[in-house]
Amino acid sequence: MNSMLRKALGVAATFVLALGLATAQVSTEKVAFTPPKIAEPLPFKIGETLVYDVSFSRLVFSGAIGELKFTVSKPLDTTESEMLELRAEAVSKGFFSALFGLKVKDRYSSLINPSDFGMSASTKLIEEGKVRREQKSVVNREAVLVTYTERDLANVKSQPKVKEKPSPSWTQDLLSTIYFVRTQPLNEGDVIPVPISDGGEIYNIEVIAGRREEIKTGAGRFKAIQLNAKVFDGRYIRRSGEMLVWVTDDPARIPVRARIKTSGATVTVDLKHLPAA
Prior knowledge:
The chain is mainly beta and 277 residues long. It has helices at 2-12, 95-99, 174-182, and strands spanning 49-58, 61-73, 84-92, 105-113, 118-128, 131-140, 145-152, 161-166, 191-198, 201-217, 220-230, 242-248, 255-262, 265-271.
């Protein structure tokens, strides 16, 4: 159960996909990809912070397992001053976390070019129990290559693992995909293809805009657009499942709920409160 809850919180950390939940399948499609149009102005501003509660349910087990925080900022590195930095943090909390000794503090960051929203670098700092890892991807857009480096921070004597693979010049990571989708029109039936760089590999997923509906979370009641992220059944995750995300039906396109179902378990991510104006 500890492993399952830890993996569930990893999934929720980006609203998407399955960080450690299941073995991924590498896309065999060509890496060429035409950058999409990006809405201007962007639907989010520097300083936007979104906080979410994460809950888990399976059979008789149900309850809170963690909290997520997403932030839009400028990079601390002045050499990257023209970029946007997207950050996320997943922290375990609640009854089940205490009961099963679940200790998670995962941090994610993405450097984005605001002109076309292409990802240039992605970093994950994983702290889960005794596990301490750093995973970093750097995209060379001119050479259409991605360099992936993984370090075991718990073992100072270990050598980093490095691999280099072909990559589209325009790509996303798991975190930046959330923000990229917010820049799109999202008319019902729209299909948004997204190439994702993760672990030095490229995966091609789709997000499909669905119906308008009203939903309620701890942050209030919202008119929302349902999005279906096609990541299961071999696209990114081999096993079957479903991932739905609801964003506000307004120019801000704020994600207010995500629900991931797979293998009889459900992870729900709900917005706690709206960001300050």
